[in-house]
Amino acid sequence: MRIRAFSAELTRGLGVVSTKFVQEIIVGIHHAQSLHLTDIARSLSEDVALKATIKRLSRNLAGQGMTEFITTALLELATREVIEDIILVVSCRALQKPFATQMEYVRGDGDSSDEDGYFVCDISAFDPALPDQYVPILSRLWSRHAPDYQSDELEILAAMSQVNSATGGRGIFYCARSKIGTLTPWWPSKVPDLRSVFIIDNHDKKVMLDGRLWSLSDLASKIELSYDRIIFKMVNAPFSSRIAGTQEGHDAELSILERFGSLAVELDNGKRATFVLERKTSRHDLTPVDDFYLATGVPAATRNQLATLLDNHYKSIEIDQAANNHKIRFNPSDVRVLSYGRLQLLNVLMQAVTYYEAYVEKAFPLESHGVSSEPHEGDHSRDFRSWNDHISAGSGS
User: Fold this and answer.
1) How many domains does the chain have?
2) Which of 81, 86, 191, 269 has its CA 20 to 30 A from that of 296?
3) Is the confidence at residue 185, as pLDDT, over 90?
């Protein structure tokens, strides 16, 4: 399916004028690899003055209802073949506009602050059976100064709920570390039948066990780390220089002893959850590194279930990085449309283009798999010599 055929499918049911506009601008964004209307207009190569094309695109960007229409159409298209327990990665970031004083709702009435700019929640899907591919499925942009804004929590929950509904609850949301605040499992636990896995940075968070509240840090001592395995991580310079034989500036691979266990708990709203503790040790760390996770609606009791949860967490990090790197190509922080509605529509159209490039065209494959349960292929330095050496390398002996 080429870009014009894809854009035609996305606009099925839209009015004639809006259909022509959406199809043209999707093609233009794809060819220009830019969100600047000048670049988009130039890539269309119309037999009219460039200013006339820019004016027409800007006018049509103000069309009512198109953001919701394209969001829904892309979501329906992207979730047609969703499998059970597919990984859904939630990525949130700030879209800073420090010099854009004229854009609608970019700033409040007072001095500049961390509230300024715009904020984006992207959700991407990943099928472990297709390890080199990710699927952008939804993007939501908002301003904290918009009159309809209530909270980041509600914006993110709205995005997750929309995807959860479109997938029939078949996906599991893995939430990457947020760049706009702290995402916690207490948010999505408010949505019925929404399944999620969160890494918890605040170890003082409280959960219920045996009728009383416990901090996660206190509960950690109650978890028996019943399972262990060796995992393998690619590391970049300068950390890679710690591994003997690594050339300056080159990547290297280290082996890590991973021990893990779980404990059934309840959130303070009564929803059942599983507290997962992962302890990682390598010969290059002075002390073990502990990571805390909370899973809701996800099997996390057996060795295989826990190993799958942890594997999927590491994959979600890669998807988060890939989605962000893909969007950077279009330089969204430099977009210059003045109205809030136009910006929201451009954001959704960019999401449609990234879906086409990553899933249809397969032009944006995942470049690396940083953490794996198997050694990485390639000619690079390692801190282990053979399969029998993995355990001693990972345990620091």
Assistant:
1) 1
2) 81
3) no
